[in-house]
Amino acid sequence: MSATNRNGWILIALTLGLTSGVAMADVVVVVSAKNPVAALSRAQVEDIFLGKTIRFPDGAPVVAIDQPEGSAVRDEFYNKVAGKTAAQVKAYWSKIIFTGRGQPPPSVSNTIEMMKRIGANPAAIGYIDRNMINDSVRVVF
Amino acid sequence: MTGRNLSLSLIGFSLATMMLSHSACADVQGPYGSMFSFNGFGTAGIVHSSDDKADFVATDFEPNGAGYTRSWSASVDSLIGGQVTATVGPQLSAVLQLIAQQNYDNSYLPHVEWANLKYLFTPDFSVRAGRIVMPTFLDSDSREVGYSNPWVRPPTEVYNANPITYLDGLDASYRLHLGGVTNTLQGSYGRNLAFSFAGGSKFDAKYVWGIFDNAEYGPALARVGYLTSSITLNSAAALFDAFRQFGPQGAAIANQYDIVNKRSSFLTFAASYDPGQWFAMGEWVTSRSESFLGTSNGWYVSGGYRAGAFTPYLTYAQITQRSSSSPGLSLVGLPAYLAPAAAALNTGLNEALNSRPDQYTLSIGVRWDFLKNLDLKLQLDRINLGAGSAGTLINPQPGFQPGSTIFLLSSVVNFVF
Fold first, then answer.
1. Which of A87, A121, B3, B406 has the least CB density, counted as fewest CB within 10 Å?
2. How far is A99 from chain B (nearest CA, A)?
3. By the 8 A CB rule, do B158 and B300 touch?
4. Cα–Cα distance measured from residue B77 to residue B64, given in angstroms and rounded to the nearest whole number
5. Cα–Cα distance measured from residue B39 to residue B417, given in angstroms and rounded to the nearest whole number
6. In this structure, is residue A119 part of a structural domain?
């Protein structure tokens, strides 16, 4: 396949919005190492990130944090826990925002920022690429 | 738009501008992130109708649309909305939303769609006061936000049964987590005063109250709702004033059928299933009024399949009126010179009794998420008008054929920010 041809195909894939599936990272859900929560189910993670609950299963308050819009890790996370594409997540929040029922989780600019936020707040929950795990966080899903 | 609504809108716009400039200059940060957030949404659309003898409109508020007035109409679906949300603390928030769309008088002056304060007593119990949603339908919360919906517009057979989207009053919402089920029970109370419909008829709804229950289990959702109010609508006032000229007999008929403080209600059932790759949903409404409006039933089923950025969908929707008739004024004993007038009134009454829409629509369309926060939709509708009915069409012209079949071609771009 010639380079021109290949670029053409990439362009078409981009246009169709099919690129999210190309670079699959292994995404994990993490909380602060100081948080007592040991594990969460997929449905519990989904409820937290879609704003359906604002507590951990033990009743402690939870603060969800998103990766930046358009990042591969974010797209994969929502695909994995909610079966939704970025556009579907946006459409879901549009329903919530425009009736004043809530706002989506605040997003950070990158994984470093995500780790800082989680380290600083035992109530925080986020998601990162498995390769980025360190001692300050615990994988709960 | 009435003077009162207009001044409300202007106040709203000034408030929004103030809040925006405040937010932009000061970038107020609370402990829960930014104190103010600004979001917007909009739809730019065009519709073409195969019938040029009547207008297709999306709601009863639009005075004209696609068909007779314009071959291609941009007014049917286009609108723009903006919203400021202020988070005052973990428990208190305020929301103000303005929408500009075609009004009954052909203007595009914005109106206040929401303006309310919300207080969270517990994470699962909240109360809102001010201008809140009229939550008649499954999609009432976001029926104006095209980007959040799969179609070009919610099926008119169901959603036009109550075109009013907001309520001035309060509502309370209680959420209960039972195993995997999230159940949300909501109660609403309020009123809507001084609405104007296309054609200039005035509408009031007092003592509006409703109860709605929503159960979600993973991708499955079921909803049941009941909304009732005391409504006044002067669209047939001339007819009933004429009846009142015929003494107690005429007054009794006028009181039975005219819409003056008449109890009207909506009972709705809805279900949806959306595992991600595809979706299916359906909704059923029976609208009942103790007036000449009578009873009508509307329902739709809709489904779609998500293939990358494309979501083709199919919808079938129907509205049927429960037919009724009245013997009207008894002509026996009437002076001969009054009998023709009385007979004409009886005909007018029976026409009014059968004036609710009767039609079914098959829609096929596709949504294309072509850019971040933007989608494009293309939809073809085939509307079959019931025998003798103009359906939901308005402005019928000489030569219009009730009971005919009409095709609509619609295209919209939806955006959110």
1. B3
2. 6
3. yes
4. 12
5. 5
6. yes
Nearest CA in chain B to A85: B276
Looking at B244-397, which runs of residues are DSSP E strands? 262-273, 278-289, 295-305, 310-321, 359-371, 374-385
Q: Can you list the alpha helix ranges (DSSP code H) found in B153-236? A: 156-159
The residue count of chain B comes to 417
Cα B387 to chain center, whole Å? Answer: 25
Q: Cα(B115)–Cα(A99) distance, rounded to whole angstroms?
A: 10
The ipTM estimated for the assembled molecules is 0.75
Flag whether residue A66 sits within 8 Å of chain B, measured between CB atoms. no
**Nearest C-alpha neighbor of B156 from the set B56, B229, B233:** B56
Topology (CATH level 3) of domain B48-66+118-416: Porin (2.40.160)
For A96, B39, B92, B151, B237, the CA distances from B35, given in Å and listed in that order, are 17, 13, 11, 33, 49
Residue A45 lies in a domain: yes
Asked if A43 and B180 count as a contact pair (C-beta separation under 8 A), the reply is yes
Angle among Cα A109, A111, A114 to the nearest 5 degrees reads 80
Check residue B385 and give left, alpha or beta (phi > 0: left; psi -120 to 50: alpha). Answer: beta
Asked if B412 and B43 count as a contact pair (C-beta separation under 8 A), the reply is: yes
- The reply to whether A22 touches chain B by the CB within 8 Å rule is no
List of chain B residues whose C-beta atoms are within 8 Å of the C-beta of residue A86:
372
The total number of structural domains in chain A stands at 1
Mean pLDDT, contiguous 10-residue spans, chain B (417 residues): 39 41 37 75 97 94 95 96 92 95 93 95 93 94 94 96 94 91 96 84 93 94 97 90 91 92 96 94 96 94 95 97 88 87 92 89 97 95 94 94 96 96
- The closest of B327, B190, B207, B162 to B257, measured between CA atoms, is B327
Task: Indicate the SS3 state at residue A22.
Answer: coil
Return the domain boundaries, chain B: 48-66+118-416
